[in-house]
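Researcher: Let's continue the batch. This sequence belongs to alpha-L-rhamnosidase, and it's 911 residues. Same format as the previous ones, please.
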Amino acid sequence: MKRLLLLFAAMLTIVTMAISQVQVHNLTTENLTNPIGLDITQPRFSWQLLSTRRNVMQSAYEIKVAANPAIKGKDTWTTGKVISDQSVLIPYAGTPLKSGTRYYWQVRVWDNQGNTSAWSAPAWWQTALLAPSDWKASWITPGFDEDAQRASPLFRKEFTNQKKIRTATAYITAHGMYEAQINGKRVGDAYLTPGWTSYNKRLQYQTYDVTSLLQQGNNAIGVTLGSGWYRGYLAWSDGKNHYGKDIALLLQLEITYTDGTTQTILSDESWKSSTGAIRYSEIYHGETIDAREEKKGWATAGYDDRSWTHALKANASTSVLIATYNEPVKKHETFKPLRIFKTPKGEQVVDFGQNLVGWVVIKAQGKSGDKITLSHAEVMDKSGNFYIDNLRAAKAQNNYILSGEGTETFEPHFTWQGFRYLKVEGYPGELKPENLTAVALYSDMKPTGTFTSSHPLLNQLQHNIEWGLKGNFLDVPTDCPQRDERLGWTGDAQAFSRTASFLQGAGNFFDKWMKDVAADQLPTGSIPHVIPNVLGNQGGSAGWADVSTIIPWNMYLAYGDKQILDQQYPSMKKWVDYMTSQSTNNLWNKGGHFGDWLFYSINNDLDGRSAVTDKYLIAQCFYAHSTQLLIKAATLLGKNEEAATYTTLLNKIKEAFLNEYTTANGGTTSNTQTSYALALQFDMLPEAQRQQAADRLVKNIKQYGNHLSTGFLGTPYLCHVLSRFGHTDMAYTLLLQETYPSWLYPVKMGATTIWERWNGIKPDSTFETPTMNSFNHYAYGAIGDWMYRVMVGLDTEEDGPGYKKITLRPHIGQKITQAAATYQTRYGKLAAGWKTENDKLLLEVEVPANTTATIYIPATGTDITENGSPLSASKDFQVAGAEKEYVVVKAGSGTYRFSAPWKPAQAKTGN
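Model: Same format as before. Here are the structure tokens for alpha-L-rhamnosidase:
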């Protein structure tokens, strides 16, 4: 036994020593793990360092790349040893890449303490079709006349191979949405493909490794299409066919055999077409599946398709095709019914307990022709009945007609619903919980951020923020997932973008969407209200169109990726120039604007309680903000002359603001919370006037009974401004307010997502105006950004974006005794958590390797300890001094545990 213990101890020592030495892990290419189908000719590599030691920095790296798993041979490219601490987004600079080829890479690093890591395990990526000429397939469309319901067409093709397959890759896209099968098995696990872009300018295709789906001998490919965003109903006034009336398929299958020969299967007129069980499918209205029409075995070899018609070649281009490297929509969480009950109206309703986006999978056994109808709703009305008035024209209804052949399972294909409740009609027999499963669908971004606190309602708010993101990030950032809208509203997206970047890895998601912002930007430079643009020439609203500058800058800060600024700079500049063209004497006071959308408003406002902020005041603030962000981008990109030009413009914009929208004694002409929040956030006031303006903001909040009165544009900045100017106590008061209007009011009313309106459900359980009352609308979830970056204190410095240089500055609240957050940066895990108990403050911090942190300990005096020892006893960090009510520590990577005396009175300001 003793020998075993000694052996175990020796092994543990070896493992500990190995970990204490620097290791390399979590290799990504373009922020993806082993991605397939990149059309980027210089993909960028990232990795993370792993070590148990403190203050570990990378001092050098070496990367090598080859088209074989051993990563050796004459085609190998290597950087050699590069003296650099850069471990994120390093571009490939080897020989030109080939289409449809898998490349392998690995990296080793040197640290700042003389250690060299072992070579990492190999990672890989596979290129897509890098040139339009690589496409040999033809667009095809059904060879039959469609019916009025636009039943989903089926396409099939059989082929034979007699050799052993080494690899097989399928490239697929559609006008509409598609689902593909090979030999009856689904291709990939992505849904709603090819996703939504500005189709006439940018159409994504997906790349799949289908090697395991093929068999030696006879094979069959089957593809089902749906109308989707391409030609389905979008927006209002029965709008459809926004990109075309056709529905079409493009598919290319490349097979390489072990003997080196190849075979290509292309979509062309030899394919057959027909219809099947999906008789109707629309995003807003739902799907009808008639199992009696199912063509069993149609996607397998040997199926008799003599009655099918030959496909027709479609007149469509491949010049707009782009590969997909943002994360596709996939299935995620599943929910079983919490209860099945009858409403006062006698309707059978299922409660899944969570407002989610996706669909319901249902099992049933009945007679041929039995019809089951599933209707979807977010809430029940005051009387306990099923409520769908807020869906407007969207039917959000799926219909299933049984074949009568045993137990049948149904789920949609080309639609989705936003719902918590399900009304079931026509179900044969007893409806049991085991026969129903709700499935959540959203873009497959990696979760990156967590937040917890000692306040249960605040934890539920965090849950609601997370599910607001999940429900609305379906390839584009939609504004609501349930009604006849579901559009990429720009104002909502910019307001929430920084919060989104904390919760999930949103870099690729927004990179793709911002390219569509640039693609759909109007010739004048104006930005449409929604992207992709299906509303025509409507655009140019302040705070909405500023998405063109705000999101690129937010993504740069969150991920340290300068490329998005370079990519979007022309669009940013065009937008600022548009505002300039609409201004007179540097004052932008014309045009249509949404203003501070859904601000606190009172009907019959006889005493002026409605918080109306001048829309042109708002416009001037965002004009300045976008100009400032353009200056920052120009400076980073080396466009110094342009930076100087726009700096001169910015000064004039602010001067015009002061002349037009401020009073002689330092107030704003609107005198609203939003007017002060924007003026302070965007530095519109001279420095000497800012504190008094912040004090006016606090006075205004108190006049509303310690409630906020802001809408979509003021809310994201409100608590940030309060904390910046010494009023963290008021920020906490607003955050923890439980009565309307507040963030916790919907939580108290049972919300599981963020509402569109502060009072979507009123205190008497009646509803706001149903024409605009979504219960899953993420914009007000932007408070999450304050919770993570200010309350807990996890932030990045502008001169070390992407959390290369970290600021950890918690702000303590009197009613909160504990708060913690973790964030998976591109360097590794960053974490902080504070706790007050027994007159002690505990602050725990984890800093990832290859980064540095400035830690602000909310304490004064010298009786602070780290891991039980006085600060002065440690050589692992530097005490940099004191700042207001903080002791400042400079530290490198590692885990730290600080303790200090604490008095509740210290939480009043949190400065």
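Researcher: Any comment?
Model: Residues 4-19 have pLDDT under 50 and may be disordered.
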